[in-house]
Design a protein that fits this description.
Helices cover about 50% and strands about 10% of the residues. The chain is α+β, with helices and mostly antiparallel strands. Among the domains are: about 10-60, SH3 type barrels; about 250-280 and about 290-480, no CATH class; about 480-615, no CATH class. The strands form 6 sheets. The protein has a 5-stranded antiparallel beta sheet. Strands 6-7 form a two-stranded antiparallel ribbon. The chain starts with 10 loop residues before the first strand and ends in a 10-residue tail after the last helix.
């Protein structure tokens, strides 16, 4: 039985892999089979280290003090890199909360002259848990005072070290600098405030099939959109039939259709930049910065609806959208490809802090597909947020409205059918709710983690408006009669799904933005090593993704009005199941990496992922 030198719960100094820098870590356990210790760093990172990469805190600090007293160390202080740069007083660090830990780089001197550079002790930062703006403001002066005192003590004692102790009221893994008297020298204060990460930024594990999968999705997604558009126009749109023949090339292109798409996007961009609505703050980035977003989506759809109504009253034939659906889809696809190329090219000039971890693989095709830059902006115009919420989402409702007019025209009806009305109203409610609560999207995976590349550009501009409208497009040529009891049952199902979706999303958004809000004090949580907590109350105590459950129930209500004659109008329901299951697996992997053992406890507490007692 091998001897275990360090026990679970011990606080030790662990070497960061690939470097000679040591950071204070906590031992989570020991694996006899691999002879490796599992440790957790201050930023929540869990790694496995060999015993030779771990040192006791007391021995480490003693050796640091003894080395720092050497005369050569005192003589070389004036050449310290920290004294060569100064920071402008206008720059602030109020948005970044951090704690200092010691990191020692050892080198053997080859001569008396080299001994002046014998042991360089560097100050590194480890991210502290994010706090609310109010908490940041209240603690800012205290943090600055502690930083100043620490830097002063380093100068007076000629020791380049920072001593840290656990702060019980902030959790077992956070550090607080010890106080000392005196004013800080600006050179060392600059060193203490700098926010470099302990290691270079790398991509997270590849998903969507990795690099080979990126090639597949780049080809498959446009091909699938083309397939469903051609298939739904057939008299018998059965999926067991052979794919319809491709129309001639000139059937894909219409200059007027391209002009309409460009005009629509520019119109939505104009509404987006108008100084109407709220300026909302996004979630903190890796740098601690919070971007601001103009959340006036409800205003945008309201103006768009008024313009569409005026256009119809002025005699504009919106059924053009139905008769030129393929050409409009082709034009939008071209725009999404050009946008994706622009996004990737500009990302090559972005700093590492601006890149998305998930799209930083180094493979051109994968990064082009997944999205290389996290939040590409042209001044204050956020391209990802705009595409996510505006042209495609509002265009979805416009297309549905045009399909209702096309149904009346094609089937000589005085009013749309019950099925068409239900599809239009259900999906309009979904979009309006999303735009009314537009601020909530700032806490979603798309905005917080995914880069903006082909995947989101194509999804937002092409996939949403030209596949989510499939039920309405199907009903134009394939009517389905509904009785009043059937209509009532479908409406009730929709309302149940909508309630679960909205309630759970509201709980999640409020908790993510301000976990210390007194209104949320009744909620049960599981603390994590990162300082954040996992919500296990309300709908989030029933399943891990109650918002997905509500989404699926609503998708079922959208498909039922189309009947059971063909599988094609059920495409959205089938696709959404696949999408949400995949998102759940991505979320599981990310949370297990981020929260470690706390996530395992969460999974034992909330057993089911999406559907209670089923999945």
């Amino acid at each position: 039985m091998p001897t275990v030198k360090y026990q679970k719960g011990d606080t030790v100094m662990g070497r960061w892999p690939g470097s000679s820098l040591y950071y204070e870590v906590k031992v989570l356990g020991f694996k006899p089979r691999t002879q490796l210790y599992t440790v957790i760093y201050k930023d929540g990172t869990e790694l496995e280290l060999k015993e030779q990469d771990i040192k006791s805190v007391s021995g480490f600090q003693t050796r640091s003090r003894s080395r720092s007293r050497s005369p050569s160390r005192r003589r070389s202080r004036s050449r310290s890199p920290a004294r060569t740069t100064r920071r402008s007083s206008s720059r602030t660090t109020a948005a970044v909360a951090a704690t200092a830990v010691t990191a020692v780089t050892e080198s053997a001197p080859s001569s008396r002259r080299d001994s002046k550079l014998k042991d360089t002790v560097e100050v590194r930062l480890s991210p502290l848990q994010q706090t609310t703006p109010a908490e940041n403001s209240s603690n800012n002066k205290h943090e600055k005072k502690e930083e100043n005192n620490t830097a002063s003590k380093v100068i007076e004692e000629s020791e380049a070290k920072v001593e840290a102790e656990s702060e019980k009221n902030q959790g077992p893994y956070n550090l607080r600098r010890r106080k000392a008297d005196g004013d800080a020298k600006p050179e060392l204060l600059e060193k203490a405030k700098a926010p470099p990460a302990p290691a270079a930024i790398h991509s997270t594990p590849l998903d969507f099939g990795g690099k080979i999968g990126a090639y597949f999705w780049l080809l498959f997604l446009p091909a699938w959109v083309l397939f469903v558009i051609l298939q739904v126009n057939l008299k018998d749109p059965s999926l067991v039939n052979a794919p319809p023949p491709l129309p001639p090339l000139d059937a894909f292109w219409d200059a007027q259709a391209l002009g309409f798409v460009i005009l629509w996007i520019l119109f939505q961009a104009l509404l987006y930049i108008l100084p109407v609505g709220k300026l909302s703050e996004g979630m903190p980035l890796r740098s601690g910065e919070r971007l601001k977003y103009r959340t006036n989506g409800f205003f945008a759809i309201l103006v768009s609806a008024i313009v569409a109504a005026i256009a119809v009253l002025q005699g504009v034939d919106l059924t053009y959208i139905h008769s030129h659906f393929l050409q409009l889809a082709t034009a939008t696809f071209i725009i999404s490809v050009l946008l994706s190329i622009y996004l990737y090219v500009r990302s090559r000039y972005a700093s590492s802090a601006e890149l998305a971890l998930g799209g930083n693989s180094g493979n051109v095709v994968y990064d082009f597909f997944k999205g290389h830059e996290l939040n590409p902006r042209i001044k204050n115009f956020d391209l990802k947020f705009f595409c996510e919420m505006r042209p495609g989402l509002i265009g979805w409702c416009l297309i549905n409205f045009a399909m209702a007019l096309a149904e009346m025209k094609q089937q000589n009806l005085d009013a749309p059918s019950y099925a068409m009305i239900l599809v239009n109203l259900f999906q309009l409610l979904y979009v309006v709710d999303g735009l009314w609560n537009e601020e909530a999207i700032l806490t979603t995976m798309d905005l917080m983690h995914d880069g903006f590349g082909f995947m989101l550009a194509f999804g937002d501009l092409v996939w949403v408006p030209f596949t989510y409208t499939l039920q309405a497009y199907y009903l134009v040529s394939h009517p389905n009669s509904l009785s009043l009891p059937a209509v009532t049952a479908i409406v009730i199902l929709k309302l149940i799904g909508f309630y679960i979706f909205r309630k759970s999303n509201s709980e999640k958004n409020a908790f993510r933005r301000n976990p210390s809000d007194p209104k949320l004090s009744h909620l049960k949580t599981i603390p994590t090593a990162t300082g954040k907590s996992l919500l296990v109350s309300g709908w989030w105590g029933v399943v891990r993704h109650p918002n997905y459950l509500g989404d699926l129930i609503m998708a079922l209500a959208w498909s039922l009005p189309c009947g059971f004659s063909h599988l094609l109008p059920w495409y959205y329901m089938i696709y959404f199941i696949i999408l949400l299951v995949h998102r759940d697996s991505r979320d599981m992997s990310e949370c297990r990496r981020k929260y470690g053992s706390a996530w395992d406890e969460y999974c034992r507490t909330v057993r089911y992922r999406i559907i209670p007692r089923v999945y």
